[in-house]
Each structure stands twice: as structure tokens, then as C-alpha cells.
Write a sequence for this structure.
């Protein structure tokens, strides 16, 4: 028979319910109640269903870069992990370019001599993590892994625009298609920002808008610069030339 320990937990027949014990014997003696606990009992022995505490998150990978798809869960017994990709079973341990974390469901891709853009694009898709033990299975929300190449500029013809003083015009930046949103700066050859005002503004689309042209707006170096924070790169587009024809009866607006 297992040796027992005694703990005083209540008085006058009141029971303590805050201990999730497997085997309890209540012995009430007058004003005291005694709980008998097996000496080989451990609270860590209590079985718990899995709960995902660190689910995978959507990520955008630019170029041949590293990524981690995380999944961590609690539960007793310790949960085992499985994945699906685009609705199909996916085993990261069988992938030569992935490293799987021990005791976790997480896996990562590390750029190396044997990894290239083709290898990386194979992992693009929608992932779901599953953590399972004897008491059930927990499922994470869907996380999307998107692979994007470094943005590049296509060769363009030098643009020249002619307009009358007092008219309005839009100089378009036309950034390359990318999942990354650039910060756009309009500058001249000397990398000085184009002066903006109530009359000259940069729109949310990155275009340069002139509400009312002055002859002083004439120049041949309106240059759109695209700054990509994720990759710490700046792309410089070809300059745009703007020629404003004077208007004898127009008035000037700063």
C-alpha cells in the first residue's frame, strides 16, 4: 500500500476543490478535514489536451532569404506535430532544404550554397499546423508563405511632356509590380527633393501632381526614386522632362 502524506485543507467538513487530485480520501475529525495524497503523485501527471500557444504567421520572403514557420503547443503528453500545405499533407522533415526544431513543430529555410530561388518558391503556399496527443488535436489558423523576387525596372523611353502654363498635369511613377510597397521620393539629378506645395503634391499612388503649372516647373530631371524598406534598396527610374509653355494672360501661383 502506498505511503501517504497528510495535508490540512479545510475545516468543519468544507472541501478544498483547487487541487485536481487523482485519488483523494476525506477524513473529517471534528473541526478538521484531512486529504490523503499518494506519495508517488505528481501534478505534472495530469493529462491535458494540446493548445497551440505560438501559431504560424503569414510571411513574405524577398529574394533568396531565410524564413521560419513557427508552431508551438502545450499539452500532456507532449504533443506531436503535423502540417498541411494548400490542403495536402506536408512533412517538413522530408524536405532537404528545411530544418525542423526538436520538440517543436517549427521549421525554417536557410539560404546556403545549395539553396536558390527555385527551391524557395517550392514552399510558397498556405500552411496549417496540427498538434496532437491522446486527448485530441489542436489546429492553427492558416498562414500564408509568399515568395517575391527583388523588384526590377524595365527599360523605358525617356518621357517628355509639354503643357501650357496654368494647366494641370500628372507625372506618373509606375513602380514595378511587387508585394512590397515602396516609399516614393521625387528628386532631381542632384538628389534634391522636388519642392512640394499646395500646388504640387505626391499622391498616395506615388504620382507627382501639378494642380497649376508655372513656367518655373520646366525642367528635365523629374526622377522617381523607389525605396524598399524590406530589402534596403532604392530603384531610380529614368528622368521625366517637363516643358511649360508661357501664357501671356495667366497669373503665377506659388
Amino acid at each position: 500500500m502506498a505511503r501517504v502524506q497528510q495535508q490540512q485543507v479545510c475545516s468543519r467538513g468544507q472541501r478544498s476543490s483547487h487541487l485536481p487530485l487523482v485519488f483523494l480520501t476525506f477524513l473529517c475529525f471534528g473541526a478538521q478535514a484531512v486529504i490523503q495524497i499518494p506519495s508517488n503523485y505528481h501534478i505534472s501527471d495530469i493529462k491535458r489536451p494540446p493548445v497551440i500557444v505560438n501559431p504560424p504567421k503569414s510571411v513574405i520572403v524577398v529574394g533568396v532569404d531565410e524564413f521560419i514557420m513557427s508552431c508551438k503547443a502545450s499539452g500532456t503528453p507532449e504533443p506531436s506535430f503535423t502540417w498541411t500545405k494548400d490542403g495536402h499533407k506536408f512533412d517538413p522533415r522530408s524536405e532537404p532544404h528545411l530544418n525542423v526544431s526538436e520538440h517543436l513543430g517549427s521549421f525554417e529555410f536557410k539560404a546556403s550554397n545549395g539553396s536558390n530561388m527555385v527551391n524557395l518558391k517550392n514552399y510558397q503556399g498556405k500552411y496549417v499546423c496540427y498538434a496532437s496527443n491522446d486527448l485530441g488535436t489542436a489546429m492553427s489558423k492558416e498562414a500564408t508563405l509568399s515568395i517575391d523576387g527583388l523588384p526590377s525596372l524595365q527599360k523605358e523611353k525617356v518621357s517628355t511632356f509639354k503643357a501650357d502654363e496654368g494647366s494641370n498635369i500628372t507625372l506618373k511613377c509606375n513602380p514595378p509590380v511587387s508585394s512590397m510597397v515602396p516609399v516614393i521620393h521625387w528628386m532631381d539629378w542632384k538628389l534634391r527633393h522636388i519642392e512640394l506645395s499646395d500646388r504640387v503634391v505626391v499622391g498616395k499612388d506615388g504620382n507627382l501632381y501639378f494642380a497649376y503649372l508655372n513656367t518655373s516647373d520646366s525642367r528635365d530631371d523629374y526622377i522617381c526614386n523607389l525605396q524598399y524598406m524590406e530589402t534596403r534598396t532604392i530603384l531610380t527610374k529614368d528622368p521625366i522632362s517637363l516643358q511649360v509653355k508661357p501664357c501671356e494672360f495667366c497669373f503665377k501661383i506659388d
Notes: The first helix runs from residue 117 to 121. The two ends are 97 Å apart (CA to CA).
